[in-house]
Write a structure and sequence with these properties.
It is a single chain. The chain has 99 residues and is mostly helical. The chain has a domain of 55 residues. The protein is built from four helices and no strands. The longest helix has 27 residues.
């Protein structure tokens, strides 16, 4: 009786899993500026528009408002959400003026 072909082929060892890198979330937009800030290099490219000064100011303002220290990750989330809100409001305004 013949053995199945898969049983006669030697198996290759499984490749080690590749580490997930946050900067590989997508392609940068054409003409996008490169950010050289070390903290920004740890964040995904989608947040490259956030400067160190903007981040520091956000941490200061919201830490005071909330009465506790705000982490860098929380500050990035706040800035991203404010940007999204601004984009939604601009889109709504444009749609209103088209009518």
């Amino acid at each position: 009786m013949a053995r199945p072909m898969s049983a006669t082929r030697p198996r290759r060892p499984a490749a080690p899993p590749r580490p997930k890198r946050p900067e590989l979330t997508g392609f940068p937009a054409p003409g996008e500026q490169h950010v050289t800030d070390e903290a920004a290099e740890r964040r995904p490219l989608a947040t490259a528009w956030i400067t160190a000064e903007m981040l520091a100011e956000t941490i200061d303002v919201w830490s005071e408002a909330w009465g506790r220290p705000v982490s860098e990750d929380e500050a990035v989330e706040i800035l991203v959400n404010v940007r999204r809100l601004g984009e939604v409001l601009l889109r709504a305004r444009r749609e209103m003026t088209k009518k």
